[in-house]
Specification:
heterodimer, A: about 210 residues, alpha/beta, 6-stranded parallel beta sheet, 6 helices, about 40% helix, B: about 160 residues, 5-stranded parallel beta sheet, two-stranded antiparallel sheet, globular
Chain lengths: ~210, ~160
């Protein structure tokens, strides 16, 4: 079986989507041939579309942007619909990472991806919404199923089995395994470190520009 | 002030009162996820292509009106890229509202968000998704939901006054 893993982050390197793709590949193991493509900008080449059309499942991995799909990725989806592949043999899956703690905040984004897959003539296979994705790219690599990523590992493993069987998976929503209050504190302390590194102060985070 | 974000190039829909229009005027760069609008130049996007000030414009408006082709229950790529580039309207810190994590306010203004979608073949599911996405946007902007309309063609929309 040939599967396309699509990195839908605008970042070419060090993205949470990239980290999730690495984990997901581990669950697929040798059971599938994987094609990796990056949808980091607004347009796709004919070669990428051609390569994808030869695979049986497409797994979109991307960040949640303003309750939906990032604009550049949406532009790629429009292009893919216009390519008129209309292939009911291709199953579509989604993995969405949210900066918010609750994975369920990715529900509408997955719904948009599902609506797209139907309109473009593919089969919707289901997805996973991951909450607390803000720290994923920085998390230490632990044994699967251990540490704060344990619920995410379980969800990714479940989805990988679904993809390999080319069946339909009900969307599932998970969060990192540590308290929301700590996640919030960690994120907010991160913003303060970042603004200080840029020569500002914590107070500047609340600036109202002219 | 009304802030209108639309993908219509030749915008000629009548608008009552003061307004600002953001429509395609040269290429827009997509959000690159750098968070510079929160931690480098708070309140403004760091990409200088003419679309960097939408967050500040949102801070001055009372009505935010999206006029967009409906793409699978989402706004179109152009309108979405403008929205993505305007997250500086909100503050990076988090608050809990209705049991869910959202961002804190940066501004005091209360935005009423309304939308005019167009498209030949918008399905009922896509309409439902679009309405729910706008409701979710309102939760994140800590604003109010206005009216949401769907039209088959742009011509139908030209009879509307905003």
């Amino acid at each position: 079986m040939k599967i396309t893993l699509i990195n839908g982050s605008p970042k070419v390197k060090s993205s949470a989507s990239g980290a999730l793709i690495e984990d997901f590949k581990g669950y697929l193991g040798e059971k599938a041939e994987v094609v990796e493509v990056g949808f980091h900008t607004t347009t796709l080449t004919k070669e990428v579309i051609e390569e994808m059309s030869k695979t049986e499942a497409w797994v979109f991995v991307y960040p949640l942007y303003v309750d939906g799909i990032p604009g550049h990725l949406l532009s790629c989806l429009v292009q893919l619909e216009q390519a008129c592949l209309q292939n009911p043999q291709i199953h579509i899956y989604g993995i969405v990472n949210c900066g918010f703690y609750e994975g369920v905040q990715a529900e509408l984004s997955l719904k948009i991806l599902q609506n797209w897959s139907l309109k473009a003539g593919f089969v919707w296979g289901g997805g996973v919404g991951i909450g607390g994705g803000g720290g994923l790219a920085m998390m230490p690599k632990l044994e699967p199923g251990h540490g704060p990523k344990a619920p995410i590992d379980k969800a990714l493993q479940g989805l990988s089995e679904t993809v390999l069987k080319k069946v339909v998976h009900e969307n599932c929503y998970v969060s990192v395994a540590f308290p929301r209050s700590l996640y919030r504190m960690g994120a907010q302390s991160g913003w303060r470190q970042m603004i200080k590194a840029n020569g500002g102060t914590a107070k500047d985070l609340s600036k109202i520009p002219e | 002030m009304k802030l209108i974000i639309t993908d219509i190039n030749n915008f000629n829909i009548p608008v009552e009162g003061e307004y600002k229009l953001i429509n395609p005027q040269g290429d827009i760069h997509h959000c690159v996820g750098c968070f510079g609008c929160w931690v480098k130049t708070p309140g403004k996007c760091v990409i200088h292509d003419g679309y960097e000030g939408t967050g500040t414009d949102m801070g001055k408006c009372t009505e935010l009106i999206l006029i967009s082709r409906c793409c699978y229950g989402s706004v179109s790529p152009f309108v979405k890229m403008v929205q993505d580039r305007a997250i500086s309207y909100i503050h990076p810190d988090f608050v809990i509202r209705k049991g869910e994590m959202h961002h804190k306010r940066r501004y005091k203004n209360m935005i009423t968000l309304s939308a005019y979608f167009y498209g030949e073949d918008i399905t009922e599911t896509e309409k439902e998704t679009a309405i729910n996405v706008l409701k979710a946007n309102v939760e994140n902007y800590d604003g109010l939901i206005g009216d949401v309309y769907f039209y088959k063609t742009l011509e139908e929309l030209r009879g509307v006054t905003l």
